[in-house]
Amino acid sequence: MSDFAVLEATARDRAGKGAARAVRKQGLVPGVIYGSSDASVLLKMDPRILSTHMRKAGFFATQFHVDVEGSKHRVLPKEVQFHPVTDDPIHVDFLRVTDRTRVTVEIPVRFENQEDAPGLTVGGVLNVVRYAVEVVTAAGDIPDEVVIDLSGLEIGDSVRISNVTLPEGVKPSITDRDFVIASIGAPTQIVQEEAAEEDDMDVPTIAEDDAAKEEGGEE
Predict the structure, then answer these.
(1) Residues 19/62, Cβ–Cβ less than 8 Å
(2) N or C: which end of the chain has fewer CB within 10 A?
(3) Which CATH fold topology does 5-97 show?
(4) Domain range list for the chain
(5) pTM for this one?
(6) What is d(CA 43, CA 31) in angstroms, rounded to the nearest whole number?
(7) Which of 42, 106, 110 has its CA nearest to residue 76?
(8) Are 58 and 144 spatial neighbours (Cβ–Cβ below 8 Å)?
(9) Confidence label for 218 from pLDDT (cuts 50, 70 and 90)
């Protein structure tokens, strides 16, 4: 993965809350690049550029070249802070990386071969538990997506992380349990009909209720 999108930025010379507020008054987003043995770089950038990339799936697993006045830095987005009212980005942190940098990132999940899942073709519902899977990997090996093959799955079947073949060197960050990513549930109509039948069985009829009262009186 060598063709990274370029994010244009300019340098800022001061850190601190006051300096960050001054940057925001200019209509820009303050940020920082940190990591490795190099010095941190303070920057400011156009929020529209940042927001455009943030709307894309897998933003925090996407590497960029941040160009700070001609100096390019290979980075991963690590944190974005938002305004509590407007939800606009107000600060961004980037982690400087190389191919060997170990990172923890969330990879978006994509499901394929729905038409080959018998549980879905008869009206079952795909219940997605996780739309992304957090993994630990080298920055040079970050996959674009985790592909889940639904072929052959019946109603009641589930897909766990142990059923997924991850690329070499990519490991799930959760290692203490075999977590579920998705399952195939019964059709909604069948579930509703079964629930209605159970309700009917639980409610006594008028005749049954009267009989119960008569028996109670005889005692």
Answers:
(1) no
(2) C
(3) Ribosomal Protein L25; Chain P (2.40.240)
(4) 5-97, 104-185
(5) 0.77
(6) 5
(7) 106
(8) yes
(9) very low
184-201 pLDDT, tens digit each: 999 865 555 555 556 555
Angle at 3 between CA 65 and CA 77, to 5 degrees: 40
Give the model's pLDDT for residue 38.
Answer: 85
H or E segment to which residue 42 belongs: strand 41-45
Q: Which CATH architecture best describes the domain 104-185?
A: Beta Complex (2.170)
Label residue 26 exposed, middle or buried (CB < 10 Å: 0-12, 13-18, 19+): exposed
Residue with more model confidence, 158 or 190: 158
Res. 141: pLDDT tops 80: yes
Residue 148: phi and psi, rounded to 5, are -110, 120
Q: Which one, of 39, 17, 58, 56, lies nearest residue 145 by Cα?
A: 58
Residue 111 near residue 131, CB atoms below 8 Å: no
At residue 215, the pLDDT reads 53
Classify strands 171-172 and 132-138 as parallel, antiparallel or unpaired. antiparallel
> How many other CB atoms are there within 10 angstroms of residue 104's CB atom?
12
CA distance 198 to 196: 5
Tokens at 146, concatenated: 């985790």
Cα-based angle 48, 49, 54 (whole degrees, multiple of 5): 95
* Vertex 73 angle, CA 140 and 145, to 5°: 35
Q: What is the mean pLDDT of residues 62-77?
A: 95
pLDDT at 209 over 60: no
